[in-house]
Write a structure and sequence with these properties.
The complex is a heterodimer of chains A (about 325) and B (about 260). By secondary structure, chain A is α/β, with parallel strands linked by helices. Chain A has 2 domains: about 170 residues, HUPs (Rossmann fold); about 120 residues, Rossmann fold, CATH 3.40.50. In chain A, about 30% of the residues lie in helices and about 30% in strands. In chain A, strands 7-11-6-1-4-5-12 form a 7-stranded parallel sheet, sandwiched between helices. In chain A, strands 15-14-16-17-18 form a 5-stranded parallel sheet. A 3-stranded antiparallel sheet of chain A has the order 8-9-10. The longest helix of chain A has 17 residues. Chain B is of the alpha/beta class and about 260 residues long. Chain B has 2 domains: about 220 residues, HUPs (Rossmann fold, 3-Layer(aba) Sandwich), CATH 3.40.50.620; about 30 residues, no CATH class. Helix content of chain B is about 30%, strand content about 30%. Chain B is built from 7 helices and 15 strands. In chain B, strands 11-10-9-12-8-1-6-7-13 form a 9-stranded mixed sheet, with helices on both faces. Chain B has a two-stranded antiparallel sheet with strand order 2-5. A two-stranded antiparallel sheet of chain B has the order 3-4. In chain B, strand 9 and strand 10 form a beta hairpin. The chains are: A alpha/beta (about 325), B alpha/beta (about 260). Chains A and B meet through helix 3, helix 4, strand 7, strand 9 and strand 10 of A and helix 3, helix 4, strand 9, strand 10 and strand 11 of B. Strand 13 of chain A pairs antiparallel with strand 11 of chain B. Bound molecules: flavin-adenine dinucleotide and adenosine monophosphate. Adenosine monophosphate binds next to helix 1, strand 6, helix 3, strand 8 and helix 4 of chain B.
Chain lengths: ~325, ~260
C-alpha cells in the first residue's frame, strides 16, 4: 500500500497533497498495490470524499482534539503510530512547508530514510525509484531506499492531478493517544499575508521582477499582469528583495523559494545561476529583458528583447484579449 | 545561553557542477567550498543571541578534515569554539545518517545545550532533513524555516515561513531551530577575528568515541543514477516593436506552448 498524508488547512485538502495522491495512485497501480489517504486533525473524516475521488481505496482519519492545530511532534507521533498499525509499503507527503517540517520527524521516529522534494517517482524492478534535483537543479539524483516504509516528499506542481470521479470507500477512524508532555511547543498563531495573494509555490503562473524594475513602483505593473490569470503570483529576484522593493516571501531562487508553475515570466531579471535554481523546473519560461545577451534567454523557452516598461503593459493587453476569447 | 550551531561545507552556489557518471559522484576538483549559506544565518543568529544574553557559541561540522576551513571561518565570525566530527565517508544523501551522528554528538559531548541552530537546508544535498530528524531523535521541539526569532527566559518564539503567511511557534528550550534568509544579515569576519581563529584549536571528535556502530552509519539511500538536467531546446527570441513582439508571444504561448 502507498499511503499519502493529506495536508488540510482551513478545512480543505491542499492541491499539492492531491497531486501526491494522484502520483501514488499511478505508481501503486503499476505495482498492483492499493492507495490510501491519511488525514490528521481534530475532526477530518469529512474530507475523505476528495481522496476517494482520486482513487484512494481507504481513508484513514487520525483524530484527536490535540491534533486540531498542526504540531510537527504530535503529527509525527500520529503518523508513526499509523505506520506501526497499518504497515504501508510507502508514505508520501507533499513537499510543502508542512510536509518538509513533518516528514523528517516521521522518518527519524521510524528509523527510515527519506526522499526529499522528488520530481519523479518510478517503479524499477518492482521497487520505487525516486529522482530529485540536487545542487539546486544542476544535477539529478536517482535512488532507491533500503528501509521500509519508503518515505518521500513530492514537489508541488510537478505531478499531474488525476481525473476525479465520484467514488466511495472505507473510512477508518483511529483515535490517537498522545501522552501528555510528549509535545513541546505549539503554533500560537498563523498570520496570513494581508494581501491574500496566493503563494509563489502554489501559483499556476508566476510573474517575477528583478533589478530591471528600478524600484518598488514597477511591481504594480507585474501585479496587473499577474491579475490577468486566475491563479498567478508575483515573484522576485534576490536583488529586488534585498533592495526592499518587495517582501522576501516573494523571492525565487536558491535562497528563496522553488517554484514550478506552468508559466514563469522573468521580467528584468538577468538569470543568475542562483535565480535559475529556483525556477528551472517551470514548464514554460518566458523572459523579458532589454539585453539580448542576458543569460536568462538561455534558460527561456520564449523571450522578448525590449524595455520592460514598454513590453509589460502591451503584453498584459494581449493576454487579456487572448484569455477573453 | 549555551548555543550549538551545525554547519556543513558545501560548494559555493556559483559552482559549475560536473557529474562523474562511472562513480555517480560530483567532481570536486576546481570547486570552491564555503559554509552552506543558510548555516551562516544560523551562526549570525547565535552570535547575536550571545551578545544579548551572554553564553557561548559552539560550532560543529560533520565531515572530512577539509571541513576545518569552514569551521575556522565561523570562528573568525566570532564563534567561541569549533569541533569537527570526523566522518570520512563521501556524500550519502541520507539525512538520517547525519542526524544520528549529530544527535549522538549532542548527547555525548554537549548535553547542556540550550539551543540547536541549523540552516534550513544544506546547499547541494538540498535535503531539508537533518534538523527535524535531530529534533525527533532528541525529543525536542522544532521550528524550521525561521525568519524571526526571540528568546525570553526558557522559552523561544519563532516565526516560520509557510505558504501565504507566517506561523508563530512558541517553544520551550532546548529546541531545534533552522534559519531562513531574512532572519538576519551575516557579518563579515574581521582581520582580528581571522587572526584569533588561526590560533584556536579545532578539536576532532571521532565516530568511535561517539559509540556509533555500522548499523547507525550505514546509508539507506542506494544511488541508481546521477545526471545533469536535460538540455533545454534553444528558446525563441523575439525582437522589434513591443506591440508586435507581445502579440507574437501570446500567439506562441497559446498555439505552440499551449499554456494559456
Ligand atoms: C549564496 C547566494 C544565494 C543567492 N540566492 C539568490 C536567489 O535565491 N534568488 C535570486 O534571484 N538571486 C540569488 N542570488 C543573487 C544572484 O547571484 C544575482 O545577483 C541576482 O539574481 C540578480 O538579480 P537581478 O537579475 O534582478 O539583477 P541584475 O543581475 O542586475 O539584472 C537586471 C536585469 O534587468 C535587465 N534590465 C534592466 N533594465 C531593464 C528594462 N528597462 N527593461 C528590461 N530589462 C531591463 C538587465 O538587462 C539585467 O539583465 C544569490 C547569490 C548568492 C551569492
Ligand atoms: N555534515 C553536516 N555537518 C553539520 N551540519 C550539517 C551537516 N549536514 C547537514 N547539517 C545541518 O543540517 C542543515 C540541513 O541540512 P540538509 O538536511 O542536508 O538539507 C544544514 O543547513 C546544517 O545546519
Amino acid at each position: 500500500m502507498i499511503a499519502v498524508f493529506m495536508e488540510a488547512r482551513d478545512g480543505k485538502i491542499k492541491k499539492s497533497s492531491l497531486e501526491a495522491l494522484s502520483e501514488a495512485k499511478r505508481r501503486a497501480e503499476e505495482m498492483g498495490a492499493e492507495t490510501a489517504a491519511v488525514l490528521v486533525g481534530a475532526s477530518v473524516a469529512g474530507l475523505a470524499p476528495a481522496a476517494f475521488a482520486l482513487g484512494a481505496a481507504k481513508v484513514y482519519a487520525l483524530e484527536s482534539q490535540a491534533l486540531a492545530d498542526y504540531s510537527s511532534q504530535a503529527y509525527a507521533l500520529a503518523l508513526a503510530g499509523f505506520v506501526g498499525d497499518v504497515k504501508p509499503g510507502a508514505l508520501f507527503f507533499a513537499a510543502t512547508a508542512m510536509g518538509k517540517d513533518l516528514a523528517p520527524r516521521v522518518a527519524a521516529r521510524l528509523g527510515v530514510a527519506l526522499a526529499s522534494d522528488c520530481t519523479k517517482v518510478a517503479v524499477r524492478n518492482g521497487e520505487l525509484e525516486f529522482t530529485r534535483p540536487i545542487y539546486a537543479g544542476k544535477a539529478f539524483l536517482s535512488f532507491t531506499l533500503k528501509s521500509t516504509p519508503k518515505l518521500a516528499t513530492l514537489r508541488p506542481n510537478i505531478f499531474p492531478l488525476g481525473e476525479a470521479a465520484p467514488a466511495a470507500g472505507e473510512v477508518v477512524r483511529k483515535d490517537v493517544p498522545l501522552p501528555s508532555g510528549a509535545v513541546k511547543g505549539r503554533v500560537a498563531e498563523v498570520i496570513k499575508e494581508e494581501s491574500g495573494e496566493i503563494d509563489v509555490t502554489e501559483a499556476d503562473v508566476v510573474v517575477s521582477g528583478g533589478r530591471g524594475l528600478k524600484g518598488p513602483e514597477a511591481f504594480a505593473l507585474l501585479r496587473d499582469l499577474a491579475a490577468v490569470f486566475p491563479r498567478a503570483a508575483v515573484g522576485a529576484s534576490r536583488s529586488a528583495v534585498d533592495s526592499g522593493w518587495i517582501g522576501h516571501q516573494h523571492q525565487v531562487g536558491q535562497t528563496g523559494k522553488t517554484v514550478s508553475p506552468n508559466l514563469y515570466l522573468a521580467v528584468g531579471i538577468s538569470g543568475a545561476i542562483q535565480h535559475l535554481a529556483g525556477m528551472s523546473s517551470s514548464k514554460v519560461i518566458v523572459a523579458v529583458n532589454k539585453d539580448v545577451e542576458a543569460p536568462i534567454f538561455k534558460a527561456a523557452d520564449y523571450g522578448i528583447v525590449g524595455d520592460l516598461f514598454e513590453v509589460v503593459p502591451r503584453l498584459k493587453d494581449e493576454l487579456k484579449k487572448a484569455l477573453a476569447e | 545561553m549555551n548555543i550549538l550551531v551545525f554547519v556543513k561545507r558545501v560548494p559555493d552556489t556559483e559552482s559549475r557542477i560536473r557529474v562523474q557518471h562511472e562513480t555517480k559522484t560530483i567532481a570536486e576538483d576546481g570547486l570552491n567550498f564555503v559554509v552552506s549559506p543558510y548555516d551562516e544565518y544560523a551562526v549570525e543568529e547565535a552570535l547575536r543571541l550571545r551578545e544579548a544574553k551572554g553564553g557561548t557559541v559552539r560550532v560543529v561540522s560533520v565531515g572530512r578534515d577539509e571541513a576545518g576551513a569552514v569551521l575556522r571561518k565561523c570562528l573568525a565570525m566570532g564563534a567561541d569554539e569549533a569541533f569537527l566530527v570526523k566522518d570520512a565517508s563521501p556524500e550519502t544523501y541520507d539525512g538520517l545518517r547525519t542526524a544520528r551522528i549529530i544527535a549522538r554528538t549532542v548527547e555525548r559531548k554537549f548535553p547542556g545545550a540550550d539551543l540547536l541552530l541549523f540552516g534550513k537546508q544544506s546547499v547541494g544535498a538540498d535535503n531539508s532533513q537533518v534538523p527535524a530528524m535531530v529534533a525527533e531523535l532528541l525529543g525536542l521541539g522544532q521550528a524550521t524555516v525561521v525568519t524571526k526569532f526571540e528568546v525570553e527566559g526558557a522559552s523561544a518564539t519563532a516565526y516560520r515561513e509557510i505558504e501565504g503567511g507566517t506561523e508563530k511557534v512558541v517553544l520551550p528550550l532546548p529546541a531545534v531551530v533552522t534559519a531562513q534568509k531574512g532572519l538576519n544579515e551575516p557579518r563579515y569576519e574581521t582581520l582580528k577575528g581571522i587572526m584569533a581563529a588561526k590560533k584556536k584549536d579545532v578539536p576532532v571528535i571521532t565516530l568511535e568515541e561517539l559509540g556509533l556502530g555500522p548499523d547507525d552509519l550505514a546509508s539507506r539511500v542506494e544511488i541508481t543514477g546521477l545526471d545533469v538536467p536535460p538540455q533545454r531546446q534553444a528558446g525563441k527570441i523575439l525582437q522589434g516593436d513591443p506591440a508586435e513582439t507581445s502579440r507574437e508571444l501570446v500567439r506562441l504561448l497559446r498555439g505552440e506552448a499551449k499554456v494559456i
